[in-house]
Amino acid sequence: MGSMIALVPLARPSRAKTRLAGVLDAAERASLARHLAGHVVRVLHEAQQLDEIAIVGPAPAYQPAWHALGVQHVITPGEDLNADLELGRHWALERGAETLLVVHGDLGWLDPASVRQLARRAVAGSQVVIAGNLARTGTNALALRPPDALPFAFGEGSFEGYLRLAAERGLTYEVLSTPGLAYDLDLPSDLEDYEAHGGWERRHATYGVKDSA
Fold first, then answer.
1. What DSSP letter does each residue of 64-114 carry, written as one string?
2. CA dist list (Å): 33 to 16, 50, 198
3. For labelling alongside 207, which of 93, 118, 189, 201 has CA 20 to 30 A away?
4. Residue 84, phi then psi, degrees to nearest 5
5. What are the tens digits of pLDDT across the range 3-38?
């Protein structure tokens, strides 16, 4: 199926999960972001569909434990998500990627079966596979074949934006919806559900926010 690379964009710990500032302090938000990113990386690895996985973000976003899984790090400024991902795409193309996945690092319910579906849909004929959030206002994961099929346009309204971009360019595209790809953690209600199901315990958030590069 050719080389397939997944990019996981991450923000600086001090800028992570700012929508939860009303219910979590900075250390707790950083801890939650690390926990979620670790989960996403492990699931991507367990899916056994990818030739390489890379974190895209500033140096403090990378966890040394990921070395053991062979996870790479594309160091970026961390000021603009789409600009960072363009640097990640350039890196992936240099590595010979034929299919590119972008999976956000806050998908606490992500499972290997969802990753396998995303990967297989991308090589089964569709040039673009879009996995929106539950409200279908944003995009939680994207598969592109070839990797430069579309410009990156993540942000509010990106789900409809990607559908429009794919149609305008005459690309084959489809929408993939699974619970693992649809549920992210952006709002206090999302966190409440996640904690209620044992996904994360804030009492474990005991370390501070380190943000030096």
1. GGGGGGT-EEEE--SS-HHHHHHHHHHHHHHTT-SEEEEE-TT-TT--HHH
2. 6, 23, 16
3. 189
4. -60, -45
5. 999 999 999 888 888 889 998 999 999 999 999 999
State the amino acid at position 70 in one-letter form.
G
CA distance 5 to 95: 9
- Cα 5 to Cα 36, 50, 57, 68, 103, distances in angstroms: 20, 6, 16, 17, 11
d(CA 176, CA 187): 22
Task: Collect all residues with Cβ–Cβ distance below 8 Å to 132 and sequence separation of at least 6.
Answer: 138, 139, 140, 159, 175, 177, 182
pLDDT per residue over 67-100, tens digit each?
999 999 999 999 999 999 999 999 999 999 999 9
Enumerate residues 6+ apart whose C-beta is below 8 A from 37.
8, 10, 55, 61, 63, 105, 106
Buried residues in 79-99 as b, exposed as e (16+ CB within 10 A): eebeebbbebbebbeeeebbb
Distance of alpha carbon 142 from alpha carbon 181, whole angstroms = 10
User: Residue 164 — φ and ψ, nearest 5°?
Assistant: -65, -45
75: nearest Cα among 64, 61, 93, 65:
61
Phi-psi region of 158 (alpha: psi -120 to 50; beta: other; left: phi over 0): alpha
Give the pLDDT band (50/70/90) at residue 62.
confident
Would you place residue 199 in the very low, low, confident or very high pLDDT band (cuts 50, 70, 90)? confident
